[in-house]
Amino acid sequence: MRERAGLSQTQLGLLxxxxxxxxxxxxxxxxxxxxxxQLKTAKQLADALGVPPAFFYTEDELLAQLLLQWNDLSVxxxxxxxxxxxxxxxxxxxxxxxxx
Length: 100
Hints:
- With 100 residues, this protein is mostly helical.
- The protein is 52% helix and 0% strand.
- α1 (9-15) crosses α2 (23-32).
- The radius of gyration is 19 Å and the shape is elongated.
């Protein structure tokens, strides 16, 4: 998301309120998976990038895309979407039980 936003590691760190002397190294360590940011820092990074914090924690690519779209919706559109999803038939995929 940082690259998509056109930000350097330093710029993102500064936007998230980090000290200039540690901004780039900390973002680098987060991106490489060496360290994980505390929840407060993750929220600050999410705010700086304009994404919901949950985006950083999902391993599901479709959910990540949905979270990005969700973030851009107005409250009324979010409510309408939830209402339509509640009414939609559930397409549960279930494992077939072994034949008897």
